[in-house]
Known about the structure:
Layout: H1 4-7, H2 13-42, E1 46-51, E2 56-62, H3 71-86, E3 92-97, H4 109-115, H5 126-137, E4 143-147, E5 150-152, H6 154-161, E6 164-167, E7 172-174, H7 188-196, H8 198-207, E8 211-212, H9 213-219, E9 224-225, H10 231-243, H11 262-279, H12 285-299, H13 301-305, E10 323-327, H14 331-342, E11 346-350, H15 354-373, H16 379-386, E12 389-392, E13 403-406, H17 421-437, E14 440-444, H18 453-469, H19 474-484, H20 490-497, H21 499-512, H22 522-528, H23 544-564, H24 571-582, H25 591-598, H26 600-614, H27 622-630, E15 654-658
Parallel strand pairs: 2-3, 3-4, 4-6, 5-7, 6-9, 10-11, 10-13, 11-12
Antiparallel strand pairs: 1-2, 7-8, 14-15
The site of ligand LEDWP2DD has 27 residues, from helix 3, helix 4, helix 5 and strand 5.
Amino acid sequence: xxxxIQSSLIINPTALTKLKNDRKEKDEAATRVERRVEHFRCxxxxxxxxxxxxxxxxxxxxxxxxxxxxxxxxxxxxxTCEQALRRDDxxxxxxxxxxxxxxxxxxxxxxxxxxxxxxxxxKPGFVSFEIxxxxxxxxxxxxxAAIDGLALGGGLEVAMxxxxxxxTPNAQLGLPELQLGIIPGFGGTQALPxxxxxxxxxxxxxxxxxxxxxxxxxxxxxxxxxxxxxVVNTARRWALDILERKRPWVISxxxxxxxxPLGEAREMLKFARAQTRKRAPNLRHPxxxxxxxxxxxxxxxxxxxxxxxxxxxxxxxxxxxxKVAILGGGLMGSGIAxxxxxxxxxxxxxxxxxxxLQAGIGRVKANLQxxxxxxxxxxxxxxxxxxxxxxxxDYESFRDVDMVIESGSCDAAFRNCSHSEDASQQVIIDLLxxxxxxxxxxxxVGNCTGFAVNRMFFPYTQAALLLVERGTDVYQIxxxxxxxxxxxxxxxxxxLVGFGVAIATGGQFVLNFPERTYKSMVIPLMQEDKxxxxxxxxxxxxxxKDIVEMIFFPVVNEAxxxxxxGIAVKAADLDVxxxxxxxxxPYRGGIMFWADSLGSKxxxxxxxxxxxxxxxxxxxxxxxxxxxxxxxxxxxxxDPGKSRLVLDEEIGALLFLKSLP
Length: 661
Ligand SMILES: CCCCCCCCCCCCC/C=C/C(=O)SCCNC(=O)CCNC(=O)[C@H](O)C(C)(C)COP(=O)(O)OP(=O)(O)OC[C@H]1O[C@@H](n2cnc3c(N)ncnc32)[C@H](O)[C@@H]1OP(=O)(O)O
């Protein structure tokens, strides 16, 4: 073989020295690579975090040859993501794969080990909820995936949980799980349809065929292309742009613009089922995949991914529910009754006296009539639907009901007819099934006064009343809050639900949380004075920002207590509940997501400042104070051991919330 050193001996001693040094450098580099490959080969898969001078943390998946997502890698990914979110010197985060490959997906070799129990798989939802949903997607720092080579299966699902994706033109992106006999289990059934549309998503999953980076860009699966040398740098800049609001901060699970309207979507899903049955009549998992995609479209991404540990993974099947009784015909009860009769359930609406009962039935009638007026329901259908509703003043007609729903804020428990452990889970499974059928999004929460939404939001009206009593203009408060993005301000809401309800539910919270409720006489006095409208008190100078913070920070504070008491399993559930149960502006990501965008330190300091001036109503709870002291996000998962999803004797409410558009 031609040896440049030997052949140059007679040519030029200086060149000789240079060549020798070059050779030495090459040998050293070759040794380094060898050592690294050797190191990789014997070490378990893992991820690393390197923080650049630009404040961008680069998380690298390392598990040669294709950076497959073994359990070690997934646990390590969770740790490095949490580390990056905690560090003050990290402003934004990029996830990438070593050696020019993003990730070949979940570690296929682990399947066998799971089956023969040589390794213990973490609990369901560990990846799709805890890592990708609640840490990456819900993060208060931007995550951008830098994709080279391939992003397949769980690898692509990790990338889709990020807020943007940069890919090389020839990278392979796909969800090939169905060819392995499983379905995309790390969120892909929800993220892919929202990024590329239902038709393309179904095609990619059912055929297991990947697309190249170039096509992925045209589909909207990735946001930009870059060469292999540039893909990480482009991702860093993109992440910083998102942070500086120069580029959109997109959570793929919440995107809806690519989802076809429900009717069209159902046609596509029907066609996909027919094609699948024709092509693979004996295979069930492709149909399961289509069902899960549909579940998410109808009821929201989280429901599609949804698994409550110890409930939906018991193999319990929902029982047939035909007749439902509702205690209370107020705004909530008549709303649930309307949703039930519209889904062809027979409903008994019980009230304490005939006046309240007629009012409740009247609300249901008005809800149905508004559909007739909008041309969404024929008069004949209206009569037929209304005939499903019966009123009651006692429990006589409850003998043959399949389910009873209590529709108030007070701390209520559904006693189970049987005392087996499964009875509670069974009731939750039944309720989830009914919730899905009436096109709501059920969120499973523990038992407490007001459950999750009313509990979190009781400070909302009370803070507004505190401001009014100190001379802030009622109209300015309502204007500031609607400008923030709520459907209406707290006083308009009071008018709508009626002062009676506001006083009754407010009284429940004063009774149960005396140390931190603000007892205002404004509404009782106005009710006494028969003034249900809006009044114009003395003016006091508060900025809209102050108004928003003085009204929502106590809500965040109460939401922290709901988490600390284990009433809710995770912050993201409270985000979903606030958006769909209270109209919290969805583009702000939910109450806890929004809070984390401001930072626990800031929120705690403001609450302390007001607590010194206005008393315990604003006092920060210990959950909030502890996180503020560490500068930690409020949405960091609470220790599941503390979760109070009570399943023995009592069952928390299932909040039937409006489903996402
Ligand atoms: C913490 C988790 C808890 C959950 C509970 C667990 C229960 C069930 C989990 C459910 C998970 C659902 C969500 C995710 C699912 C998935 O991601 S499934 C996997 C999806 N990925 C694939 O199907 C890719 C399969 N591989 C390929 O298509 C090709 O190998 C390739 C990646 C395109 C590379 O092809 P090529 O360059 O031709 O090289 P090969 O010879 O094919 O492969 C090279 C070596 O790499 C190994 N390898 C490839 N893919 C994987 C993989 N996914 N996992 C592990 N190893 C992989 C391959 O075996 C070769 O290895 P060697 O033989 O040692 O060279």
